[in-house]
Amino acid sequence: MADYSQQLQRVLHFIDAHLQEPLSVEQLSAVAHLSRYHFHRLFSAHCGHTLFDTITALRMKRASYQLAFRRRQRIVDIALDNGYDSAEAFSRAFVRRFGQTPSAFRRAPDWGAWHRELQTLNDLRRKIMPSEITTDAVEIIEFPGIELAVLEHCGDPATLGASIQRFIEWRRDNGVLPDRSRTFNIAYNDPGTTPAAKFRFDLGVEIRGPLAPNAQGLVAKSIPPGRCARLRHVGGDDTFGASVEYLYRHWLSGSSEELRDFPLFFERVRFYPEVPESERITDIYLPLRSR
Tens digit of pLDDT for each residue in 262-283? Predict the structure, then answer.
């Protein structure tokens, strides 16, 4: 049986990069190098969803990130940026997908509904666009240590978006923007095995001085210097778990390294939705004992 996974990956990468443009079966079948007479049925058979439902879902995901986390973008600009001719058409599609108008979502997102709606899309991306990792992708580095302003998220991972909003608000108010200060996450536990109420995850940004008291509740923390295994993850957070699992299950067991008493942490290098989701970059750091 033929394996069409590479063709479908090409299509999803192309859609990611062209969400603001009209997309047709003829155009995407050419990207896949497949007959336009069979491409749509083939896509649906492999993905479990029609091509155009998938395109709409990808546009809605990107739009929801822009509404929630890029609050200075006008709704009409977000509509145009995601391939809609008008704010009205965009609003109708958004309500069908998330049960809220774009303006209502921006004011008070229903994070539970948002998380459930995106889960199907994330499952599809994991199926079609799995992480491909080799041993030589991991390097041992000396991490120099860094001081951070941190917003501590404690609770259901499905509500992490609300914490991200507060974190971005503090960054914006204090001029600590991603192009000036590095962005880190500290992962204290695994969301797949930890009860939702006990999930802990830090959102951190590099600071170069004392942290002033603030309404958003950020606190000062540091990532200490030390040896780390570093793996660069390219793609969305939907396939992030596979990269983390590779470090623990395959790379660590095949090395002579021992873990240090500090949590796994990440550096966000390229951000979605500023770049297509398939071009998002996150460096994963696994702390190791000194030698």
Answer: 999 999 999 999 999 989 999 9
